[in-house]
Design a protein that fits this description.
CATH architecture: 2-Layer Sandwich
CATH class: Alpha Beta
Shape: globular
Radius of gyration: 17 Å
CATH topology: 60s Ribosomal Protein L30, Chain: A
Order of helices and strands: EHEHEEEEEEEHEHEEEEHH
Number of domains: 1
Strand order of the largest sheet: 6-5-4-3-8-1-14
Bound molecules: zinc ion
Length: about 240
């Protein structure tokens, strides 16, 4: 492997396994201040599944169910966040316009192995971004049910940033498998969880990550839950 493709020494940090979220455990009460100790870049959600989270350069934004992005205080709580300190391993520019399938295939071809984690920051112009956010939920409502109430937004001819991660398929109980990206407009006023996009000209920065740091919540909800159920289908339904 060439030197410029050496994996980052920073771990990928998860404040809880995604399975806890899939099972409707939405109140882990982990402050953003704790998340920020582990990274300056990433995504997640907030307690009571109150919108989508995107973190860029240490700034956390909450994208509420109306698609608007709000800066949030460090005291705000999350049940699930994925972060790292972003230091791209390599960067590639896609100048041409691409539909979603072509874009995904090009991204896939960039990743040297499907068996590592990657952080991805994709900045530039998009002909279309289709994104969603979710309205605040009651604790214990299964994620697949909550996500069925998602609100969708369309951004046309938008400048902005997709931020997120690739996770190997066999780690689906810990983090959303495959690509998971959240969008934030250039003016940082709107965004959401990416459903589909068409790119016009973007720069893709990739950070290879070969270490995982996983915190397990110490809440009563987490400690007493049976995680024996196979949640793959529910997670797939909730994230697409
Ligand atoms: Zn998401």
């Amino acid at each position: 492997m060439p030197a410029e493709r050496t994996a980052s020494s920073h771990p990928l940090y998860l404040c809880a396994p995604v399975n806890a979220l899939v099972e409707g455990i939405y109140e882990e009460n982990i402050p953003l201040a704790e998340i920020k100790r582990h990274g300056d870049f990433g995504l997640g959600t907030f307690d009571d599944l109150d919108g989508e989270m995107v973190m860029l350069a240490g700034d956390v934004y909450q994208i509420t169910a109306d698609g608007e992005a709000h800066g949030v205080a460090d005291a705000k709580h999350t049940p699930f966040a994925v972060v790292t300190f972003f230091e791209p391993t390599f960067r590639v520019t896609f100048d041409e316009a691409m539909d979603y399938d072509t874009f995904l295939a090009r991204l896939d071809a960039l990743l040297p192995s499907p068996n590592l984690f990657y952080a991805l920051r994709i900045r530039g112009r998009f002909d279309l971004v289709r994104a969603r956010s979710v309205p605040k939920q009651h604790n214990y409502r299964p994620l697949s049910e909550a996500a069925a109430e998602q609100h969708e937004f369309r951004f046309e001819n938008a400048e902005g940033c997709l931020a997120g991660f690739y996770t190997p398929a066999f780690m689906a109980s810990l983090n959303v498998p495959g690509l998971h990206l959240h969008f934030l407009t250039q003016d940082r006023l709107r965004g959401g969880h990416l459903l589909e996009c068409r790119t016009r000209g973007v720069t893709v920065e990739v950070q290879m990550l070969h270490t995982l740091e996983l915190s397990l919540p110490m809440t009563h909800d987490y400690l007493t839950r049976d995680f024996g159920r196979d949640t793959a289908a529910d997670l797939e339904a909730a994230e697409k």
